[in-house]
Amino acid sequence: MFLFTSVAIGRPAGDTTFRSGSGIKEVWLHDTKATELAHLGMLWGFLKYHHPDATSGAVDMDAELFRVMPQVIAAANMDSSYAIMERWVDRMGVPAACRKCVTNTNEAKTFTGPDYASLFITTVPQSLRSKLDSIKKNRESSKNRQYVKMATEGNPEFLNERPYDATPYPDAGMRLLALYRYWNIVQYYAPNRHATRNRGRMLADMVQEFANAGDTLAYQLACLRLFTRINDGHGRLDARSKALETHKGIYITPFKARFVEDQLVVTGYYKDTLNITGIIKPGDVIEMIDGMGMIDLIRKYLDIVPASNHQAKLAAMAGADGFLLRGAGASAKLSISRNGERRDITVPRIRVAEWMRKADAWHTNEQGYRMLAGNIGYIYPAGLAGSDLKNIQASFENAKGIIVDMRCYPAVSMMAGYTAWLKPEASAFAKQTTMNIDIPGLFEFGDPILTGGEKGKHYTGKLMILVDETTHSSAEYQSLALRSMNGAQVIGSRTAGANGATAEIVLPGGIRTWLSGVGIFYPDGTATQVEGLRIDKEVRPTIKGIAAGKDEVLDEAVRMLSE
């Protein structure tokens, strides 16, 4: 049985007791133990972000967790667990009455208030709830926070979070710390936490998977499942560990594919190698990979592909960092359909390379601007250089219309110079929600964000913005700004719904991930996270068009501008 020992509270800089591990090698979960450990995680996060000894850095909250966790694990029942937690709160000490209490004084700007999950429900003993309520009410304003501060653009910055990266497979206590750390960051500092699937059950649901993860791969897959549940396209896992890469497969087909008309369709090639262009063609529909049908493959990977919406998930699955086209062997057996004819083929695979990931994520294979037939200017932001604006202004001065193709990730920001050139009059294009540093969990709307209205020469012709599921994050934000130009239109299909600047999170095992740190909305309050941008005219590629080498979205924009 684990025994509680009163250990002196140490400062983060000096308490090295648990730097190499929690000492908790395994956790036996039975009866209500997952719920008890979930409540421990909620309590730990509440104290971390509310108790003055934690927010000031007087205690190391990781070390505190590892001192109390063994007792909760060993507790015979839930009542015993709550008693242990309450003694822990007593040892932390209930703060004195605040001198400058923090309250929400601007409810008109409130988007969403704090959420304490199950900490204040009636099954928690009244004595413990009263102590937690006192801690909450007596939290004083302070600019110095040990674990979080407000960075640029209102983003949270998470401080002094140790990566515990000596091994990619941390012990059971460290794995539960990873779950607790992430869940509480989402609970108090994710502006889009309302998009999380079953957030109330998220912690208890994942305790068993984190506690029982048997190796590095199982732990990293548990992290991916956790990240996926918040429906945030910034929630990728950046570990590049041998375990996860091997699980995906170190080989990939030399061709590219995307989901079109609800089917996985070949669209082009990463590399013309091993006669791949003679084996498989753009427009071919992939129905099976190595004996598994596409519906089963999607179901297999759906809960380990972080994204904001289903279309973005499918795009990520088919990419160079996805699962569908990768494998352990140097070839893949495919069942394809070409012009309605079913055939079985074997295609070679090549080793995944960093240039593939970059090309897949950033779409940099095209020049930044050119003139199309019919005197229509075309801008491809992934290919732009910082010095291109003056040449674009001169070249497109008399263009009949301009197309900005945001089906990519911009290499430069179009927020200043381009919007100043395209918008003679200033107007609001968005507003955002940011955290309140003094009240964890409170998010408030800021003032409308304006663009345009600067002096100088302006382009006053028509503007078309092309988007689809690859229009992600900065591309969505810049599209939002460009759309506010008078008469501009957004053409294409649903975007990734991952708008806003990002905040980095570090977890045990050296894992890094991100979340959207601010909420981005239209001026009327309509959300862009998950939902994506408003589409003025929906145009989607077709299998027939891809087979013919057409870009149907671009063609439609050209047609509309030529009318």
Automatic annotation (TrEMBL):
Domain Tail specific protease: 377-538
Matches recorded under Gene3D superfamilies: 2-enoyl-CoA Hydratase, Chain A, domain 1
SUPFAM superfamilies assigned to the protein according to its UniProt record, in alphabetical order: ClpP/crotonase
Highest taxon, organism lineage: Bacteria
Protein name per its UniProtKB record: Tail specific protease domain-containing protein
Source organism (scientific name): Nemorincola caseinilytica
